[in-house]
Amino acid sequence: MRSRGEGNGELAMTTTRRLFGTDGIRGKANTEPMTAGIALRLGQAAGLLFTRGEHRHRVVIGKDTRLSGYMIEPALTAGFVGAGMDVTLLGPLPTPAVAMLTRSLRADLGVMISASHNPYEDNGIKLFGPDGSKLSDEKELEIEALMDSGFGDRLAEPHLLGRAARLDDAAGRYIEVAKASFPRGLRLDGLRIVIDCANGAAYKVAPTVLWELGATVIPLGVTPDGFNINKGCGSTVPEFICAKVLEHGAHIGIALDGDADRLQIADENGELVDGDQILGLIAETWHQAGTLRGGGIAATVMSNLGLERHLESLGLALHRTKVGDRYVAEHMRATGMNVGGEQSGHLILSDFATTGDGLLAALQVLAVLVQKGRPASEVCQVFKRLPQRLKNVRFTGPSPLRQDHVQAAIRQQEMRLQGTGRVLIRESGTEPLVRVMAEGEDAELVAGVVDSLCETIAEAARLRKAVA
Questions:
Q1: What is the pLDDT of residue 54?
Q2: pTM for the whole thing?
Q3: DSSP letters along 424-461, please?
Q4: 127-135 average pLDDT score
Q5: Is it the case that residue 379 has pLDDT exceeding 70?
Q6: Above 80 in pLDDT, residue 313?
Q7: Is the peptide bond before 33 cis (omega within 30 degrees of 0)?
Q8: Among 3, 114, 116, 235, the one annotated catalytic
Q9: What CA–CA distance (Å, rounded) separates 91 from 87?
């Protein structure tokens, strides 16, 4: 079976870049590339690149709760001020809130300091253009080139330096936008909701939104200390929210990650609902309401074939993109779609946001629960998942995928699925990993395909390393 924008066994290569990966810059704090020095130069370069015209230029900067944010934030601020930009500091806020405020405040650039679902030791920098969308690969490469080439005498003269100030009501502005995305006339009264904020950026705003909409809220992961972000909680530890739903007798559980752009849900039975199921639910609901645009949704090559078949039964298409929510967002803009996302829980609802927003997506699910008056276990399981298996193979040196016998092995394993499934091999954009995924109707066969390919790729990597 082939999907739009993707073929069986597609080899998704990523252009090697020095700083930027698939989601901004990311690394271990206080080591390259996540040092104060690089953050300073990034602020200078991005500030110069986005300074156009004679108006006072502005950049907004948000962050999550990592200790290293106290190092990266002032370094970036100094860089932007030196480039002649005024800086508006938002404090701890979700990534989608930063994107929203970039547009709302008519800023020239937005910055989020976060490593998303990674542990506290890591940090990252994500950049947004004036429209609140993540920068394209081309713009990121321009910034890298400018950082490498030097600025000469292009930095601001002393009388043209920028200023920095904090926006005290940043959280309140996002809270009101989030509440406005919930259907008018509906309330969450009577719903008991566990919300896990991963000790991250949404630790204040997410429980507040749910409470103000009428829910009984059990907040978890809301005591950040600089070290505990994503630690044993959040969307990447789904067993935690599943257990807490049962413990508190909740109707539903919502788990966000460190910067709240990712969502996982647990139903009242403690069963996990992943991003594909949520995409299917929102697509079907909006299609029935006549508000789904573009004739389908955008998702990545990782989304389950069960989702694709369900959408086809509704007369809708699944357009697949490279892995990364910004590629999904770019495809949505190009095709006029207003729903897209990733199996991992990055869900983009462009009627309300320009990037993935875990809280806004959760509110759409909660709206369906209220409208239908049925439990989450019935509402959220909208299609039957096909067996899917994913394993990673770590390597050093050149990619083992470029070897002829590895490509031959991939073709051979594709033939084993006999058109009932697919194989996807891709390199990680952030780590020296090959990700091997297969899915099909026979779980045992799928597992065998993945295990066989992992063995072949691992052996090829060992041989290449030995030769080197």
A1: 81
A2: 0.89
A3: EEEE-SSSSEEEEEEE-S-HHHHHHHHHHHHHHHHHHH
A4: 95
A5: yes
A6: yes
A7: yes
A8: 116
A9: 12
* Burial state string for 245-258 with b = 16 or more CB within 10 A and e = fewer than 16: beeeebbbbbbbbb
- List pLDDT tens digits, range 70-80: 999 999 999 99
Q: In the sheet where 252-256 sits, what is the strand order? A: 216-220, 192-196, 252-256, 263-266, 272-273
Give yes or no for a contact between 130 and 58, defined as CB atoms under 8 angstroms apart.
Answer: no
Q: Which amino acid is at 118?
A: N
Show Cβ contacts of residue 169 under 8 Å, excluding neighbours closer than 6 positions: none
Report the C-alpha gap between 237 and 430 in whole angstroms.
20
- pLDDT per position as a tens digit, 248-258: 999 999 999 99
Question: CA 81 → CA 45, 60, 352, 465, distances in Å?
Answer: 11, 12, 31, 46
Residues 101, 340: Cα–Cα separation, whole Å: 21
C-beta separation of 424 from 9 below 8 A: yes
Query: If DSSP codes are grouped into helix, strand and coil, which group holds residue 468?
Result: coil
CB 294 within 8 A of CB 331: no
Other CB atoms within 10 A of residue 131 CB: 11
Give the Cα separation of 453 and 158 in Å (integer): 60
| Residue 61: burial class (beta carbons within 10 Å; 0-12, 13-18, 19+) | buried
Look at residue 2 and tell me whether its pLDDT is greater than 70: no
Q: Is 116 a catalytic residue?
A: yes
What are the tokens at 465? 């390393």
Place of tokens 């003269």: 157
The secondary element (H helix, E strand) that includes residue 148 is helix 137-149
What's the 3-state SS for 32-99?
Answer: CCCCHHHHHHHHHHHHHHCCCCCCCCEEEEEECCCCCHHHHHHHHHHHHHHCCCEEEEEEECCHHHHH
Q: What angle do CA 452, 456, 462 make, to 5 degrees?
A: 145
User: For residue 12, what are the β-bridge partners?
Assistant: 426
152 Rama sector, left if φ>0, alpha if ψ -120 to 50, beta otherwise: left
**What's the average model confidence in pLDDT over 375-399?**
92
